Amino acid sequence: MASEIRFGVQYNGVSMVSIMGPIPFAQQAEQWGFDAYFVPDLETLSSLDPMTLLASVAQHTNHIMLGTGVLVVPFRSPYQLAKVAASVDILTSGRLILGLGAGLLPKDFAVEQVDRRKRGKITDEALRVIRSLLAGDTVNHAGDYYEMTDTRLAPAPTRQVPIWLGGSWDNGFADAVINRVATFGDGFHPTDVPVEGYAAAISQIEGIAAGQGRDVDFDWACNMWLNIGANKNDALAAVQSALNSRFGDDAWEAHPEDCYALGTPADCIETIERYADIGVSTFVINVLTSPEDLLPTLEVFSKEVIPHFRR
Questions:
Q1: Are 83 and 150 in contact (CB under 8 A)?
Q2: What DSSP state is assigned to residue 66?
Q3: What is the DSSP string of 172-212?
Q4: N or C: which end of the chain has fewer CB within 10 A?
Q5: By the 8 A CB rule, do 51 and 38 touch?
Q6: d(CA 104, CA 91)
Q7: Residue 186 pLDDT
Q8: 215 φ, ψ (degrees, to nearest 5)
Q9: How many alpha carbons lie under 13 Å from residue 52 in its C-beta half-sphere?
Q10: Which DSSP symbol is given to 307?
Q11: Could you report the per-residue pLDDT of 59-76, keeping only the tens digit for each?
């Protein structure tokens, strides 16, 4: 089992703002003992710009880490993304976790006028530039999508901002996802992945990174849906209903219940322990419930699940 288990919580404005605003929610999460506060990048759903939101939340919290889960790389130039990441990290005194990904929702790509079929190649090229800029390097780059000459980011962060790369499971991870994490990531932050699939991904990523000469102590994280109920089957049905309500035509089918924290608090502990046993150390809890059950669910989780891993 991972030596230290940390818990983050994700704020999804589209489903949460009617219950609690993003700043009070972050303050409550900090009081409940969550280690990190994450926000998604949802262009066409009702949500605030993630980096603007995190900069604001930072002024009203003390120590909770602040992450993007995940920021869509093709929607921003690599310099713009590095600049805003450095700014937020400086303003938060080093509390940023920069979660990045290639994007998923077709409507978001349509409104941003980005060819969704090219998102992987765009992301890989941008990541190479972003890492160099955040490291304080002078960048000279000529690629298929971006060009830079003698470009340097100022001010650069005072530390190495951790880059966690996302990935969606579809009976496996695409080779491009595995290679992306191994080549550019400091951590992996996937969604909907079963334990066995995550274990295989860890082995692949570590092997590729070693072959490239990268000596990385990866952060293994997991974006995990949460629904506390009488049993796992009822909770899974509630998750599917919430997905359909939140994402509409872009909703996807929920995977079997062993991917999620579902059922009683004891069931949730059992599921989390299975991931912790393979080395996953950070669980970003993403509540999928009816609006009125959202805060009570998180309170139960904070009082009956988190303390089990703090003994």
A1: no
A2: E
A3: S--HHHHHHHHHH-SEEEEES--HHHHHHHHHHHHHHHHHT
A4: C
A5: no
A6: 29
A7: 98
A8: -105, 90
A9: 4
A10: G
A11: 999 999 999 999 999 999
